[in-house]
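As agreed, record copied across for absentees:
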Amino acid sequence: MKLRISAGSVQLEVVLKDTPTAKALLAVLPFESRAQTWGEEVYFTTPVRTKLEPDAKQIVEPGTVCFWTEGDALALPWGRTPISTDERPKLASRCNVLGRIEGNPADLQKIRSGEKITVSKA
């Protein structure tokens, strides 16, 4: 399962795991949102509402695609956030892990807060 995230000149492909949240996300594609940034993380709201899954994590590796259930948002970290205690991204709270960005997750730093994001099937 793959999806594409586009914002301005940035085009990213995501490989999704087979999880309930990933399936819910695929079911609402395509959709648009507006980017927000938090340290070295881009996040944006989605039309999906879901609960935490058993393997939810707060500390992840760069390029991990996460779903923040408290904000109904995708969280895409590529580095440190304001609450990181080491080099790894630390999310605002535990999030469902949906998959990984293919390619260089640092491309996310080109996305500016307020920029339109489109999420579609790849």
Observations:
- DSSP finds one helix and ten strands in the chain.
- The first helix runs from residue 20 to 27.
- The beta strands are 2-7, 10-16, 31-34, 36-37, 41-45, 57-59, 64-68, 73-77, 90-102, 116-121.
- Residues 34 and 99 are 21 Å apart (CA to CA).
